[in-house]
Each structure stands twice: as structure tokens, then as C-alpha cells.
Amino acid sequence: MILKALFLIAISVLSYGCESTKTLILSNQLQASFASPKSYIHTYNSLIFKYDGWWISHEVIDSTRLYPSLDLGDNFRPFLRSIFQPELNSTLPENLVKLSSEQRKFFEIADRNIIKKDISGAEVLGFYDEEKKKGYIFVLEDLLVHRIDTSSNKKSFHTLLNSIRVR
Amino acid sequence: MDLHEQDDLRGFLVSLFGNQAQAWPMSDKMFNLTFELLAESASCSSLMDLVPRPFPIGGQPISWLKKEIRSAFLRSLKNDSSHYVVCIRAAALQKVREFQLAAMGV
Known about the structure:
The complex is a heterodimer.
Chain A: H1 2-20, E1 21-25, E2 30-35, E3 39-42, E4 47-50, E5 55-61, H2 76-84, H3 94-107, E6 114-119, E7 122-129, E8 134-140, E9 145-151, H4 154-163, E10 165-166
Antiparallel strand pairs in A: 1-2, 2-10, 3-4, 4-5, 5-9, 6-7, 7-8, 8-9
Helix pairs in contact in A: 2-3
Chain B: H1 3-17, H2 28-40, H3 45-48, H4 61-64, H5 67-79, H6 81-103
Helix pairs in contact in B: 1-5, 1-6, 2-6
């Protein structure tokens, strides 16, 4: 009887564990894991996972979707990189150099909070703003660029960041 | 906001965020977020000159601005949208999720 009860508890805990972590397939190469949200919100172009008082969002972006009023064309990827590494902006036209610097300022990116990773050839750029409790991650794959935002504490941001891995 | 004000606000938000803003309800929350976005961008200061100061901390812009000032504010946004889109583009990238969540009533 006791063994049966312990078995049932173990099964419940394991089931709970499975339900509390969800997998988001980002592409045929990558995936991310996140805690089970209170609700999922699908907007025009993004998916938002809503929790009590915080959220995570995912969007696939391209040269026309970062700034809907501006097509970045072939400068899209160099522009994204230049937000994190201003020294890489030499190939950009002057108006994009200015915008990149402005974006860096609005994001409040400082060298100390920049995250750079390589996941099997995918370039991950991100940072966390402790004051605003917001984090931004850009994942540059060969064919897709992902934008993942969080409005969360630092621990949740890093848990999400570290969950991005090869499938 | 009356219908003219809602149209002015929608026109500006479509210029800024693209077609997704067509489907957004032009609510008080949407006005407040737009106001905050402009207030955070120092290069949009000419528009903020319309707003009486000091703005109360924690106050709701929609209730703080008298109707005439609010209408003039929205009219300026609509009439000079290309200028204002450029000056708040970087700030808007950061706040787009807040607009999307407000649009979904969350």
C-alpha cells in the first residue's frame, strides 16, 4: 500500500515536472525551453508567453520587421551586430550608424551587460537591463533571425538564454 | 478620445508599428503608452512643448491633458508623423510588446 502511494507520488511529481517546462522549436536546428506560462498570446507577428507579472516573447524578424517604417535591406544583419559591437558599424551608411547608436542608447547596452554566444554556428547576441528588468536576445541563424524579449528577473532571463540549444 | 482623435492616433501608430496597429483598439491605455514613448525621446521635444508642466508623477496622460491640448497633440503627430516616427523609432523597438499586450487587453 505504502509502495503504491510512493509510486503514485513519484509519477505525479514527474508529470508535474514535464508539464512545467515547455519546449519552443525555433527552427530545424534550435529550440528553447521555458516555464509553463499562465497564457499564450498570439499577436500579429509575435508569440507572447504571459506569467504573473512578467512575460517572454518570440518573433522571427527580417530586414523589414525590425523597424516597420524602414527596410534595412542587406544591412539588416550588420546593423543588428553593430548595436552590440559599435566597432562593426564601418560598413553601414551614416543614417544607420546613427540609428544603431541611438538604439544602443535606448536599450541601455553597456559592454558589461552584453552576452555573445555561438550555438552550433548560430550567433546569439543579448543583454539584460537590471534597472528596467528587461532582456533582449537576438539569434542569428543562416536563414532565420529570432528576437526574444523578456520582461522578467535576471534569473529567468538567464534560464531562458541558457535553454537555447541544438535540437 | 473622440473618433477624430482615435483616427489620428491610429494613423501615427500604423506609421510607427506597421499594419498590425490597424487592428489595435485606440484606447486610453494606447494613448498613454504613445505619450510615454514620446516623452522618453528627447529629440521629440518640440511636440512635448504642447504639454503643460510639471507632469504629475504617476499621473495618467489621458486625464492630465485637457481635450484641446490632447487633440492638438494628436493632430501634430498625424500631420508630422514621418518626423516623429524617426525620432522615436529606437524607443519604439523596445516598447512594441507593451503596445501589443495593451491591444490584446492583457
